[in-house]
Design brief:
Distance between the termini: 28 Å
Shape: globular
CATH architecture of the largest domain: 3-Layer(aba) Sandwich
Number of helices: 9
Number of strands: 7
Strand content: 5-15%
CATH topology of the largest domain: NADH Oxidase
Radius of gyration: 19 Å
CATH class of the largest domain: Alpha Beta
Largest sheet: 5 strands, antiparallel
Bound molecules: flavin mononucleotide
């Protein structure tokens, strides 16, 4: 594999984060195959592998995705509406704007808006598709967890493998309740696009460690609420 440097698995995990400034330069097809080959090593319930991976390079399709994505994302969450001044030190959250650790801060907001504006220019968008006809109308939490759980690990594999080739990615939402993506991509009935992953070499930024809540705050030992301070990670 000539296009990649050796990369320790923990280093890859720690430095695979949302990259939203991506160059339009093409990604070689053999690299895309290797990235997808890593994706499908991910887990699925009962090893059913009820997935399909649509690799989108057609400019006309990318353009349509870009238009729908930016309209839905920017209008649904107000990323475009909130200015840096209004946001201040707060973050955009699902519920609006709030102070705290969780949510999208000023810098990320600019990244989100940038990607929405340039989505059509990324060289590749991967659409991970689940086609589990029997369960698609089952709205229980269990079914939802099974559906997502049977592809999100593979999607993370895909992003980790991209990272190994120096390619940035970010998991984005489709915000699709209807059939737009099914029609656009000619998908079989009862299939659903579980997200969209743009891929590209980095235009800005670098592969750095993502910021998260303190580890000790989110880890519970034996029972919820039994917590300890985590050791320094040394990273
Ligand atoms: C279900 C899901 C949907 C997401 N949707 C979007 C999206 O539509 N647009 C976007 O720019 N990022 C999206 N993200 C990326 C998150 O914003 C990102 O993972 C989070 O901010 C952490 O980024 P970091 O790893 O760089 O810290 C999504 C992530 C997930 C898991």
């Amino acid at each position: 594999m000539p296009d990649r440097e050796p990369l320790d698995v923990l280093d890859a995990i720690h430095t695979t984060r949302a990259q939203r400034y991506l160059k339009p330069d093409p990604i070689p097809e053999d690299v895309l195959w290797q990235i997808l080959d890593a994706a499908i090593r991910g887990p699925t319930g009962g090893n059913q592998q009820g997935w399909g991976w649509v690799v989108i390079r057609d400019p006309a399709i990318k353009q349509q995705i870009a238009e729908v994505y930016s309209e839905r994302l920017l209008s649904a969450y107000g990323y475009g509406r909130v200015s840096d001044e209004e946001l201040g030190t707060a973050r955009i959250t699902r519920g609006g704007v709030a102070e705290g650790e969780v949510g999208i801060d000023q810098r990320n907001r600019r990244g989100v808006v940038h990607l929405a504006e340039y989505y059509a220019e990324v060289p590749v968008i991967v659409a991970p598709v689940m086609q589990t006809a029997a369960r698609m109308d089952d709205n229980t939490r269990r079914a939802g967890a099974g559906l997502g759980g049977s592809i999100y690990g593979a999607m993370q594999n895909l992003m980790l493998a991209a990272r190994a080739f120096g390619i940035g990615s970010v998991l984005t939402w489709t915000l699709d309740e209807g059939t737009f993506f099914r029609d656009l991509l000619g998908l079989p009935e009862n299939s659903f696009v579980m997200g969209l992953i743009p891929l590209g070499y980095l235009e800005r930024g670098r592969f750095s460690q993502a910021r998260r809540k303190p580890l000790g705050e989110v880890v519970h030992w034996d029972r919820w609420g039994e917590q300890r301070d985590a050791p320094e990670s040394g990273r």
